[in-house]
Amino acid sequence: MIVRAAIPADAEAMTGLLNRIIAIGGTTAHQVPKSPETVRKDYIDGPECITAVVAEGAGRVLGWQAIGWWEGDAHIGTFVDPGCQARGIGAGLFARTLIEARAAGIATIHASIRADNVPGLAYYARIGFVDYAFDPDFALKDGRRVGRVSRRFDLR
Length: 156
What we know:
alpha+beta, Aminopeptidase, 3-stranded antiparallel β-sheet, 33% strand
């Protein structure tokens, strides 16, 4: 597996992975499929983007992670191919993301995780994120209340 900075040419593969995760449901608050143009703008090189990295293996993108500005804070998102989870991809992504975040001068990384996303909660706890808020009323666009856990990772 190779973990490297994402480039605009990765947008299509990143989109395909994200849209598969959206279609499966249950682990992302995103409910509407995205276009490669939107993924590029929102995660790779748009004005709110801080860093994005991809993990490649077997000639394809196995996962990706990005930090961008949201509501004044640096927020992280992680997306790993469901068939490849629990194989160290998330850890590899985060190791590279930390390098990029420190280089960008980020002091704290925030993660907003659906309270019903058990694998996501476990992942962020495993890599050192700590809880600082909980919103039991957080709802998806379709009205389902799933709750949201807010976690942070301090780099300084």
